[in-house]
Specification:
homodimer; about 425 residues; mainly alpha; Na+/H+ antiporter like fold; 2 domains; globular
Chain lengths: ~425, ~425
Amino acid sequence: MLLWAAAEGFRFLELFVHLLILLVLTRAFGEGAARLGQPSAVGELVAGVVLAAAIAQFGADVPFLAGLADSALLDFVADFGIFFLVLMAGIEMRPQEMAESSKTAFVVALGGMFVPLAAGFGLAWVWIPENDLHHAQAFLVGVAVSISAIPATVKVLMDFGVLHQRFGRVIVSAAVFDDIFGLMLLALLTGVMQTGVIPDAGTLALLVIKVAVFFAITVTLGVHVYPRLSRRIKETQMAALEFSALLGVGLAYGLLAEALGMHWVIGAFMAGLYYERPRVGEPAYSDMKLVVGTITSGFLGPLFFATIGMRVDLGAVTAVPVFLVVLLVVAFLGKFIGAGLPAWILGLPRREAAAIGIGMGARGAVELVVLSIAYEAGLFAASDGIHPVVDNLYSSLVVMAVVTTLAAPLLLRRVLATPREADPSDETSPPSG
Amino acid sequence: MLLWAAAEGFRFLELFVHLLILLVLTRAFGEGAARLGQPSAVGELVAGVVLAAAIAQFGADVPFLAGLADSALLDFVADFGIFFLVLMAGIEMRPQEMAESSKTAFVVALGGMFVPLAAGFGLAWVWIPENDLHHAQAFLVGVAVSISAIPATVKVLMDFGVLHQRFGRVIVSAAVFDDIFGLMLLALLTGVMQTGVIPDAGTLALLVIKVAVFFAITVTLGVHVYPRLSRRIKETQMAALEFSALLGVGLAYGLLAEALGMHWVIGAFMAGLYYERPRVGEPAYSDMKLVVGTITSGFLGPLFFATIGMRVDLGAVTAVPVFLVVLLVVAFLGKFIGAGLPAWILGLPRREAAAIGIGMGARGAVELVVLSIAYEAGLFAASDGIHPVVDNLYSSLVVMAVVTTLAAPLLLRRVLATPREADPSDETSPPSG
């Protein structure tokens, strides 16, 4: 007669079924993608698209399936997925090396960000009709085409044995800078979403000051307090306390970022950024990299990418084909010119500059994090029925991210496979040059 | 003007604040307890009691604090905390060694379970007035006093260098058996909660068959499929896939257990139980132990113990003092006689049999998991105002668990510190005997 089945059991069982479906599906697609030489995140995102289609088709017949589409679990997992993805991105980066990184990489990153940002903003400003969220949407499109990521590209560079040549290192460093710029742009985007308009000079100056305060606080803590904290923790039960401390710092930095008008993901990122081997010691660093990396790649990440995919409506491909093609061209050319041209001007040979422009074209986790945050903030939902481009904006941007990410390694292989010009600036001379 | 603050941001920020408060408070109290030589779970539980008191006192004044008391986060975290605590308990146990363990340990575990089970059941049956949930409540009290755990006791045994003497090994093995018996009793308790009455012989036989089917399936899969699964996974990206697989198996076993009328925690436990070093290989085992252990001890465990504490009303101590004292006496004597007497009959010297009876008195995670499940199933809430003992039953049982857990190591130290009788059955002869 009792409570059990009705009250708590059923809800939690449904959660079990949902988690199991998501876990099995995403890992199967993710592994499939990895075996095809693609980032597993793309496979996991596609798993979400497939799942959404399956729910639409069979949701009424299969028990539990229908509830998956609007499960509170998805929002929750998406948020925690973002937290861990960004924390892990921070842990994997080495701020020391970045500070010592080449001027070329910095300039390439800047060019590779501002050119597509301007082009994407311009495109959206003209194409998207006037509506309440017009400013924010135009800015979002600019941000969406301006963020690079490297995982797929690195694999190609390694295959060709050019990862440690000058242009290979430029691609990697510039993409890292780009992720950080992307997170800063997100701070600005949050401001635009809050006010609904592009900030004026005064507001912008205030925002810059707030950003500076945030970084001053977190960098100081990162450089001076992290090592001491770790030394104290080392005396006791290590991994669990390190993990608690890392999560606690991420939460606290997230709250600080929000208090200063930025988005909490920047806090999570900074918590990870200064968690690095020389600062916290080898065992703690590798333990946390394993633990956070395993939670991220083995559970929260795949589910996050699946939620991204589940929200995609592939109808966008047929509903707004022209916009989508133009968006892809802007995304590709913006990176190709914005990152490739400065590289060429700074003295890299044409073929390598082209490789940089193409290699920077891949999008990644930070890109999808920004889209997801904009989605949850209602930037797409609030505009139903105004115009097909607005209705399909989210799906178009995700398709753009996936297509450019899949295309970048393919195109990069082509460029690297062409015979190279004899070039004195190369550090290693090709054996069959 | 926009969405951000209102829609998603605020809810998630509140979650951040709640998580940060819980994390900082539980880890501080947990570390404090550990430095006093107590299990950190006790400290984390006390942190919950303190937090609940703080909310009652200052909840109206401090922003976000009031929402923490009935945050959906707590239920969610409690459920996932249980999943990971039980999964980790399974990972840490070695079924191979248990199968080879001594007959003495098995008999001690059986006696140490059935005597307090009967005594607790009898006490509650007589003391708790007739109400809808009378059967289930009496059975729960029996189960609650019958579950042992060892972490606190092991530390004492190690301090005295007797962990590997016969009675030391008996305590450890018997407590492990006891945890497993406790989970089986939970299967029965779930049945009682669903039907509201103690099952008759036919229902009981059916339940036993279902339990047998469950164990037949999961043990077969554990012995034969786990090693193959791990061998395949080893070829690819290891830790993340192992983690996904382990979670997936836990979820699937949990659903199987529920389908067979048991509770899902038994599924999570069995998923961990056959995840052991010789079966899955050294690197995978130690990676998963680190990852699951870190999530459990560094995040979900402390929050779970805090939620247990937050639900405690210390008013129980003054509201039903006589019941509480009798409950403590039953819990202590039940274990002392139930586990100590068989040990003495099986030939252990009196002092060591006493040490066994006392050492088995500590309660632990499985005990609190059972109480939490009963709480969420409404076993305590559905009886408001019937009788003070019913109203204070949950708090009394938690207080009993904490007091016996704190008392066991103290009493054990006393017994071990008394000069021992000369005894030929001892494996190692005391140097100053």
